C-alpha cells in the first residue's frame, strides 16, 4: 500500500516536472504577478485609507532638504561629527571614573587580599596583574564610548535619517563596487569594528555585504583613536611650535582616519573586481518614512544588542590575553624573559618596516583590544630598557597621565619620528582585534573570509610601513 | 638601533626588493592571467574533460538531428585530428559510442552519460545566472569548467536549493534526473516567413562572439518578435518596438516559438530610468536580464507588472533615484532602472 502511494507520488511529481517544460521560463513571474493582483483586488475591496497623504507630504519635504545637492552632504557631516564629538567628550569622565575604581582602587585591594591569604607570587601575578587588569582596562576604556555612541547612532537610524545617508553616499560606493549602506557600517566602524561588522547585516546583497565586512577594519575604531592622538602629539606635534602642536597633531590623526576611508574604498574596489567578482550582487534601498524615535526601546536594544555583546566578547578575550601578557614578561629562559627573546629576535625584521620588536609583540599579545596596545608597549619598553621608577612591575600594563613622561619612555626605547609615524600607520592597517575577528566568523560563517579579513590589512600595513620607511631612508638618511 | 645605520645603507636594495615582492604578489593573484589562473587552465586539459566534452557535443548533434564525424569533433573541441582519433578510440573502447562509416553516434550508455554531464552543465549555468554576478557571456565557459569537477550530489543539492529549475538561462531545457528531455520545440528565426509573430524561446550561447552581439542587441528568451521582412536571407523583425535586422548566421542562433492566431503587437516600453522627478508610470515588467536575487527583491518590493510607480527624489549625487511604489519609497540605481519597463501615464490625477 505504502509502496503504491510512493509510486503514485513519484509519478505525479515527474508529470508536474514535465509540465514545467511546457509552461515556459516565465512561470515564476506569472505566479508572483497573480499573487499581487489578487492581493490588491482584496485590498481595494476591504481596506480604507485616510490621512496618509499629508504625512507623506511632510516626509517628502524633509527628504528634499536632506537629499538636496547642496545641503545633503553638509548636513550629513555635521550630524556625524556631532555624534563623534558627543561620544569623545561624553566618554572622558565615566571612563576616568571606571579606571580609577577598577584599576586605581580595586587593583591594590585585590593585591592586598591575595597577600593576606599568602597566594604564591606567580598565581597572584597571573590572576590579578594579568587577567584582572586586562579585563578591567578593557571595560574602563571600551564601555563608556560604546554606551554613548551606539544609542546615538541607533537613534539616528530609528529616526529614519541613516537610510538617507546611504541614499546620498551610494554613488561613491557604487563606483567602488560597494553598497551605499556601507557608509553606515563604516561610520559604525568608527565606533567599534565588531559592531560595524554586525551592522553589515543591513546589506542584503552577499557580495556587497562581504566587502563591507572585510573593509570595516579600515575605519579607525574607538580603541585606536587614543593611540593615534597620543603618538601624534608626541612625535608630530613635537615638530612644530607649541602653540600649533595640538592643531597639527589633530590634523595628523584626521589624516590617518581619511587615509583609512581611502583604503576602505580602494580595497572595496579591488575586492569587487577580483576575488569577489563572481559573488551575487543586488541593490535595494528602502527609504522608510520618518518617525519619532522610540527612545527607551532604542536605548535598550543598543545597550543589549550592541554594547553588551561586544563588551562581553572583548572581556572573554581579554582575560586569557592578560595572562599571556603577564607570562611573556615573567617567564624566563636563562637570563632573559620570553618577551625579551622575542623582541631581540624580531628587531632586525621589524626595523625593515620602521617598527620595532616591542610594537610587533604588543600587537600580537594585545589582540583582544586595541585599547591595551599602548599600555602593553609601555610595559614592554620599560622591561627591555630596564628603566626604574616607572611602571607598576614586570608584566603589569600601565599608562601615564603625562604625555611628556610617556614620550620619555618611548625615546628611551629608541623611538624616532619615523617609528611614531609607522606606528600610526600600522595602528590603522593591522589585523582586527580578536573580538572583531570572532564577529566576522560569526557573521560570515566562513573560515576563508575570516582569514582574508584578518591578514589583508596586515599585509597592507607591512607594505605601507615598508615603503614609508625605505623612502624615508632614501631621502633623509 | 645599531642596525639603523646598516639598514640605511641597504635601503636602496631593500626598496627594490620590496617592489619585486609586491609585483610577484600581484602576478600570482591577477585574475585571468596570473599564476593561479594559469594552473586552473592546465588542470582543464586532461583526458576526462575532453571525453565529457566530446560526449556533450555528440548528444547535441543527435538532439538537433545532425551527423557527426571525427573532423567535426576535432573542430568543436579545438584539438588536432590526431588527438581526436585517439579520443574516439577511447570512447569506442569504453563502449560509449559506435562508429558506422565515419559517422559517430552515441550508445545508450554514452547517451545517459552525456545527459548527466548536460544536466550538471545547465544547472550550473542557471546557478551562475541567478545566484552570482558572473558576466552573461562567461556563464557557458564557467559552467564548462565547473561541470567536470563537481560531484553529482553537490549539483543535485544545488538544484534542490534553486527549486529544481527546468530551463537553463538560455532557454534550453535541463534534462531530468532520469535523463528525460523534451523534444526540441520551435523554429529557427532564420526560417520564419514574413508576417509571423512568435516568442523567442532559446538563444544559442556558442560561438561566444555571436552570442555576445545578440545580447548587446537586447534580445532575450521570452521576447515577442514580429517578422516584417525577409530579404536575401536577411530577417528583419520588430522586437519591443525596435526594428532589428539579422544575417542568416545570426538569425539561426535564435529559436522562436510561433504564436497562433492574431496576436496584438506588444507595445513599446519605456525605461523606468527615463521618468523625470514627479512623473508617474505603470510598470510593464522587468527585463529578463535582471535575474536572481535582484529580480526577487524588486518583485518583493512591489515592482510587478500593473503597479503604479512615480519618481520622487534624486539623491544628493544624482543616482540612485527614489521611486514610490505601493506606498513605499525605494532607492533604485540607474543601472537597475534601465532594466524595468514602464508605460508612462500622462494624466496627473490617479
From TrEMBL, chain B:
Database matches in SUPFAM superfamilies: C-terminal domain of transcriptional repressors, Iron-dependent repressor protein, dimerization domain, Winged helix' DNA-binding domain
Molecular function per GO: DNA-binding transcription factor activity; protein dimerization activity; transition metal ion binding
Keywords from the UniProt entry: Iron, Membrane, Transmembrane, Transmembrane helix
Transmembrane annotation, as ranges: 12-30
Ferrous iron transporter FeoA-like domain sequence ranges: 187-258, 270-344
Entry annotated with the keyword Transmembrane helix: yes
Origin superkingdom: Bacteria
Pfam families in the cross-refs: Fe_dep_repr_C (PF02742), FeoA (PF04023)
Xref: SMART domains: FeoA, HTH_DTXR
Xref: PANTHER family: IRON (METAL) DEPENDENT REPRESSOR, DTXR FAMILY, IRON-DEPENDENT TRANSCRIPTIONAL REGULATOR
Protein name per the record: Ferrous iron transporter FeoA-like domain-containing protein
Source species of the chain: Labilibaculum manganireducens
Amino acid at each position: 500500500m505504502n509502496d503504491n502511494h510512493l509510486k503514485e507520488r513519484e509519478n505525479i511529481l515527474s508529470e508536474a516536472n514535465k509540465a514545467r517544460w511546457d509552461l515556459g521560463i516565465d512561470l515564476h513571474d506569472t505566479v508572483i504577478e497573480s499573487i499581487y493582483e489578487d492581493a490588491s483586488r482584496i485590498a481595494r475591496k476591504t481596506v480604507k485609507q485616510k490621512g496618509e497623504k499629508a504625512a507623506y507630504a511632510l516626509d517628502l519635504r524633509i527628504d528634499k532638504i536632506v537629499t538636496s545637492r547642496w545641503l545633503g552632504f553638509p548636513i550629513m557631516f555635521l550630524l556625524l561629527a556631532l555624534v563623534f564629538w558627543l561620544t569623545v567628550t561624553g566618554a572622558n569622565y565615566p571612563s576616568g571614573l571606571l579606571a580609577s575604581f577598577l584599576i586605581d582602587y580595586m587593583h591594590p585591594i585585590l593585591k592586598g587580599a591575595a597577600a593576606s591569604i599568602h597566594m604564591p607570587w606567580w598565581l597572584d601575578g597571573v590572576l590579578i596583574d594579568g587577567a584582572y587588569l586586562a579585563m578591567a582596562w578593557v571595560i574602563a576604556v571600551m564601555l563608556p564610548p560604546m554606551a554613548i555612541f551606539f544609542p546615538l547612532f541607533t537613534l539616528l537610524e530609528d529616526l529614519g535619517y541613516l537610510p538617507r545617508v546611504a541614499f546620498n553616499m551610494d554613488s561613491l560606493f557604487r563606483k567602488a563596487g560597494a553598497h551605499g549602506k556601507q557608509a553606515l557600517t563604516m561610520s559604525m566602524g568608527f565606533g567599534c569594528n565588531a559592531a560595524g561588522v554586525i551592522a553589515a547585516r543591513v546589506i542584503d546583497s552577499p557580495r556587497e555585504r562581504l566587502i563591507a565586512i572585510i573593509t570595516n577594519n579600515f575605519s579607525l575604531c574607538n580603541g585606536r583613536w587614543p593611540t593615534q592622538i597620543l603618538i601624534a602629539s608626541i612625535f608630530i606635534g613635537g615638530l612644530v611650535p607649541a602653540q600649533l602642536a595640538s592643531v597639527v597633531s589633530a590634523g595628523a590623526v584626521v589624516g590617518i582616519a581619511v587615509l583609512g576611508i581611502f583604503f576602505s574604498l580602494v580595497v572595496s574596489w579591488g575586492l569587487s573586481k577580483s576575488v569577489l567578482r563572481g559573488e551575487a550582487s543586488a541593490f535595494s534601498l528602502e527609504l522608510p518614512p520618518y518617525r519619532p524615535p522610540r527612545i527607551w526601546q532604542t536605548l535598550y536594544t543598543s545597550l543589549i544588542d550592541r554594547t553588551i555583546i561586544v563588551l562581553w566578547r572583548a572581556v572573554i578575550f581579554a582575560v586569557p590575553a592578560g595572562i599571556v601578557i603577564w607570562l611573556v614578561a615573567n617567564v624566563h629562559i636563562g637570563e632573559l624573559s620570553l618577551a625579551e627573546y622575542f623582541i631581540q629576535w624580531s628587531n632586525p625584521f621589524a626595523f625593515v618596516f620602521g617598527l620595532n620588536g616591542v610594537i610587533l609583540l604588543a600587537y600580537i599579545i594585545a589582540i583582544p583590544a586595541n585599547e591595551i596596545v599602548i599600555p602593553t608597549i609601555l610595559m614592554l619598553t620599560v622591561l627591555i630598557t630596564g628603566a626604574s621608577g616607572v611602571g607598576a612591575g614586570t608584566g603589569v600594563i600601565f599608562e601615564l597621565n603625562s604625555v611628556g613622561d610617556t614620550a620619555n619612555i618611548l625615546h628611551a626605547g629608541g623611538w624616532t619620528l619615523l617609528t611614531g609615524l609607522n606606528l600610526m600607520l600600522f595602528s590603522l592597517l593591522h589585523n582586527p582585534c580578536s573580538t572583531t575577528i570572532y564577529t566576522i566568523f560569526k557573521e560570515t560563517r566562513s573560515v576563508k573570509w575570516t582569514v582574508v579579513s584578518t591578514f589583508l590589512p596586515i599585509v597592507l600595513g607591512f607594505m605601507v610601513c615598508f615603503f614609508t620607511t625605505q623612502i624615508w631612508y632614501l631621502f633623509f638618511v | 638601533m645599531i642596525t639603523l645605520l646598516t639598514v640605511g645603507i641597504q635601503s636602496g636594495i631593500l626598496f627594490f626588493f620590496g617592489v619585486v615582492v609586491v609585483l610577484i604578489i600581484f602576478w600570482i593573484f591577477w585574475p585571468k592571467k596570473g599564476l593561479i589562473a594559469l594552473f586552473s587552465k592546465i588542470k582543464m586539459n586532461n583526458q576526462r574533460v575532453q571525453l565529457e566534452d566530446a560526449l556533450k557535443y555528440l548528444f547535441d548533434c543527435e538532439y538537433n538531428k545532425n551527423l557527426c564525424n571525427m573532423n567535426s569533433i576535432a573542430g568543436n573541441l579545438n584539438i588536432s585530428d590526431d588527438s581526436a582519433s585517439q579520443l574516439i578510440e577511447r570512447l569506442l573502447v569504453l563502449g560509449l559510442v559506435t562508429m558506422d562509416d565515419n559517422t559517430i553516434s552515441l550508445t545508450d550508455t554514452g547517451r545517459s552519460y552525456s545527459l548527466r554531464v548536460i544536466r550538471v552543465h545547465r544547472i550550473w549555468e542557471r546557478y551562475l545566472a541567478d545566484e552570482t554576478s558572473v558576466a552573461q557571456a562567461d556563464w557557458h565557459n564557467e559552467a564548462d569548467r565547473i561541470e567536470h569537477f563537481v560531484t553529482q550530489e553537490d549539483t543535485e543539492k544545488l538544484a534542490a536549493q534553486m527549486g529544481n529549475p527546468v530551463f537553463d538561462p538560455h532557454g534550453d531545457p535541463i534534462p531530468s534526473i532520469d535523463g528525460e528531455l523534451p523534444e526540441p520545440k520551435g523554429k529557427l528565426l532564420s526560417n520564419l516567413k514574413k508576417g509571423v509573430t512568435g516568442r523567442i524561446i532559446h538563444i544559442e550561447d556558442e560561438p561566444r562572439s555571436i552570442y555576445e552581439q545578440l545580447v548587446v542587441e537586447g534580445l532575450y528568451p521570452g521576447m515577442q518578435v514580429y517578422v516584417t521582412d525577409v530579404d536575401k536571407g536577411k530577417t528583419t523583425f520588430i522586437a519591443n518596438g525596435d526594428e532589428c535586422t539579422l544575417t542568416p548566421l545570426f538569425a539561426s542562433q535564435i529559436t522562436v516559438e510561433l504564436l497562433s492566431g492574431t496576436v496584438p503587437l506588444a507595445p513599446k516600453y519605456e525605461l523606468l530610468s527615463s521618468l523625470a522627478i514627479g512623473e508617474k508610470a505603470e510598470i510593464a515588467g522587468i527585463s529578463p536580464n535582471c535575474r536572481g536575487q535582484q529580480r526577487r527583491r524588486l518583485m518583493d518590493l512591489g515592482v510587478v507588472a500593473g503597479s503604479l510607480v512615480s519618481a520622487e527624489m534624486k539623491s544628493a549625487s544624482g543616482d540612485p533615484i527614489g521611486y514610490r511604489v505601493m506606498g513605499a519609497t525605494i532607492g533604485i540605481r540607474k543601472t537597475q532602472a534601465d532594466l524595468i519597463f514602464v508605460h508612462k501615464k500622462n494624466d496627473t490625477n490617479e
